[in-house]
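[audit] Reproducing an earlier prediction to check determinism. Same input, same settings, fresh worker. If the tokens differ from the archived copy the diff job will pick it up downstream; this log only records the rerun itself.
[audit] input (132 residues):
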Amino acid sequence: MSHELTIIDPALLALINNSFDTKGLPLPFVREIFLLECRVAGTSHLNLQGIEPGIRPEELFVFRREPDNPYDDLAILIFDREGHKLGYVPRDRNEVLARLMDAGKLIFGRLERKGWERSWLTLDIRIFMRDM
């Protein structure tokens, strides 16, 4: 068995991973890393009846930090692709995610399931980090 290093062209790796930046240049090892699964918090405080039909399984949700939130300085807002507020990452699950976001990491969600419990829309999501 040889113990020599094999040199791999980064452009070839990018082709294999199908990952390019906005200028068409290859990005090495861009991938989604699954972090956790949770239920979106605060949906019972919002009127989501008009929005719910447009929310599809596997839809990506945008996360935005809300450090000035009066109840939780680690709050993370969740929006659909149209920019509608859907709720928050639960407080008991947001600390590490907020720290990653504050450090510049891209954190986002993907819808797993949705359903109605009386007038409360439940949204179960999986949370990912895009890493390079």
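[audit] rerun output stored. Observation attached for the diff report: The chain has a mean pLDDT of 86.
[audit] end
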